[in-house]
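Example record

One chain of 184 residues, shown exactly as stored in the release files.
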Amino acid sequence: MPSSNTLSTAEPHTPGLRRRMACWLYEGLLLFGVVFIAGYLFGTLSQTRNAMDNRHALQAFLFVVFGIYFTWFWSKGQTLAMKTWHIRVTDKSGRALSQGRALARYLLSWLWFLPPLAVIAPFQLPAGETTVLMLGWIAVWALLSRLHPQRQFLHDALAGTRLVHDAQGEARARLKRRKADGLA
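Predicted structure tokens for this chain:
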């Protein structure tokens, strides 16, 4: 009998790169709310009056808040953006992530940003060049997933996780839409 944490007996497929990147962009949009609330909380508790005061402490606080956010949601299977795009994160066996594995995935996911930031920092490049370098690295990083046998991102391969299409979630959403339209 399969474990209750196993998604299904059929091998789930990896969502396409466009779907994963759309989910990634939507996640970034949703994180604005998390940043706003966390920044407001930090500013209030630290009595910060100027945005540049305590900047490094705020960045460290946001790093921790993002870590808690992603670790908690990934250990449940998906974030709100992933739910919207019918994507689920699992371990290699198809089970839900432990909090330790979700935390490892969070830390490894910073490989999306740290290399270009390390290149940009010593040169203090203007905003336009910084944007080109960041977007270029993100595009290269995303396209490298095509080299993986299961089309997974490198941080997922290193963390022992994988993104899969959430067919059950998509079926539930389709049924919900049909009921709302009065067809079911």
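Notes: The two ends are 32 Å apart (CA to CA).
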